Every structure is written in C-alpha cells, then in structure tokens.
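User: Design a sequence. Structure:
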C-alpha cells in the first residue's frame, strides 16, 4: 500500500526504477522546470493561525454557508437533483451537483436514496477505515528554561526511542508572533496508531506525559507558562495494507452516479496540502460540468 500512503515515493520508483535515481533525476527535472522541491519550498501561515483562511472563505461565501448542521440524507429526485436533509429529516437545500468531503466514518453513515440508478455501490464499508485518536498538547515556556536551541522544524520520535510522544513542532521557531518575546511555544502530539490509549488519558495526565518527554529531549527545566490541549477522537485515516479497496469503492461510487463527488483526506491524502489540492480539483471538475 505504499502507492496509497506515500504516492509521491511510489511514483518516483515507478518512473525511474528506484528511489535514489528518482531523487537525482527528479531534481534535474525540477531545475529545468524552475520549480522548488517540497523540502526547500517556502513555509507560510497566517498571523492569527490557519483559522484566518477558513474565516476568509466563510466571509466570501456569506449567507449561503450553513454551519453546525449535520447532513444525514441525500435523496435523488426524478430530474436527477439531490435533496439534502439533516438528521431531523428537515430539507436543507437542493443541488444539481454535490461535493462530499466528510471523513470516512461519516461517509459510511450517510443515507443515499437513488432514483435514477439502481444497484449503486454504497459506502458502508468505509466504516472499517481506522481513525486512531490523537491529542495535541501546546505548551509555552520561558526561553531561558529551554536548553535546546529549537533551531529547526521540530522532531519526530520513532518507536525505538521508547517515549510517550509522537513528535513536537517548534511552533514559535516556524512563524513569527506565536509566542511573546522571551518565550517559546511547542506543539506535541500524543496517541495515534502507536499508542491510542495515551491520547485518551485525562488532560492532566496527557500534560505530564508530554512534559516528561520534553524535559528529557530538550533540557527543559521550568514549568510551562501556557497550556492548551485538544483531543481529536478520530484524527487521521490510516492508509493500511489493503487500503486500495476503499479507494476503489469511492471511485466506483462516483462513476456510478456521476453527480456526487468525493474529496478529502480519506481519498486524496491526509495532509493539509493534499486536502487543498483535492478541493481545487473537485471544484474544477464540477465547474466544467455546469
């Protein structure tokens, strides 16, 4: 399942015959195209965090945006249009084309009623895609209390290191104004497929697990001056061996009925960049139809 979990590595190997040849020849091709590799590309964010992006999009959409509404049923009428209803059965709107970017476990719960096409493959099987929990723990420290220079992106902690945390981002090193002058901000992740039970511990216990690792890895002496924690009970879909059957089911579903389009991290890659590209491609596909 490398081609699903690491599609770019898979493509390199398929095109050039090996990863090493792919790295060398791929770099030459990028220079000819005058493009920059991912590891050398400029990083950017927003002054108040990523929510600035979604807030701006919401402002652009205006009153057509409907928040805090759980879609439960999509019914296809005789003319082929889709009637959208919430979990109370109340009709929300009717559309010619529908883009669905829900996580896999919600896709599996949707109730599709088809009028035009019989025998369309449903998406119930997507409920088996694994979404382990992950907890994000954000801690701020006085700069003088952290021995490590934090001169990088962050660290990943492989299982062999026998620590509680998955890794840490040096948030205040990456972007300006993420911490007050004389302070640093670290974002650490706990749980995942490796140790899901740790993500589900009470918040205080999660904080202590993180602090224990940070003190050992980065030489932190003092107590944090800022604490924030958030639990994602179903965080990232795991592109495990055999994941191709789920992708095949989603693709066949789109082929069968043609006016519902599936996007998002369970289909087109788990990163934020993957999700943005996925959304853009789906939008262009729909615009071309209408």
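Assistant: Done.
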């Amino acid at each position: 399942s490398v081609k699903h979990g690491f599609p770019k590595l898979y493509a390199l190997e398929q095109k050039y015959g090996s990863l090493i040849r792919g790295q060398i020849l791929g770099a030459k091709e990028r220079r000819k195209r005058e493009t920059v590799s991912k590891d050398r590309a400029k990083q950017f964010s927003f002054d108040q965090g990523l929510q600035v992006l979604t807030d701006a999009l919401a402002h652009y959409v205006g009153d057509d945006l409907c928040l805090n509404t759980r879609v439960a049923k999509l019914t296809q009428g005789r003319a082929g249009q889709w009637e959208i209803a919430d979990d109370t059965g109340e009709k929300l709107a009717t559309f010619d084309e529908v883009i669905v970017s829900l996580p896999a476990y919600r896709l599996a719960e949707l109730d599709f009623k088809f009028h035009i096409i019989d025998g369309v493959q449903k998406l119930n099987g997507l409920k088996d895609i694994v979404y382990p929990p992950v907890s994000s723990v954000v801690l701020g420290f006085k700069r003088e209390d952290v021995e490590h220079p934090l001169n990088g992106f962050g660290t990943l902690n492989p299982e062999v290191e026998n620590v509680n945390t998955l890794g840490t981002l040096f948030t205040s090193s990456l972007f300006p104004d993420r911490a007050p002058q004389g302070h640093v901000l670290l974002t650490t992740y706990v749980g995942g497929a490796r140790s899901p039970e740790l993500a589900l511990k009470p918040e205080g216990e999660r904080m202590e697990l993180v602090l224990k690792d940070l003190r050992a890895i980065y030489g932190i002496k003092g107590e944090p001056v800022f604490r924030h924690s958030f639990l994602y009970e179903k965080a990232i879909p795991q592109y495990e061996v055999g994941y191709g059957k789920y992708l095949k089911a989603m693709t066949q579903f789109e082929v069968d009925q043609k006016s519902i389009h599936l996007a998002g991290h369970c289909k087109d890659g788990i990163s934020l960049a993957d999700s943005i590209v996925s959304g853009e491609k789906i939008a262009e596909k729909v615009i071309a139809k209408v």
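The chain has a mean pLDDT of 89. DSSP finds ten helices and eleven strands in the chain.
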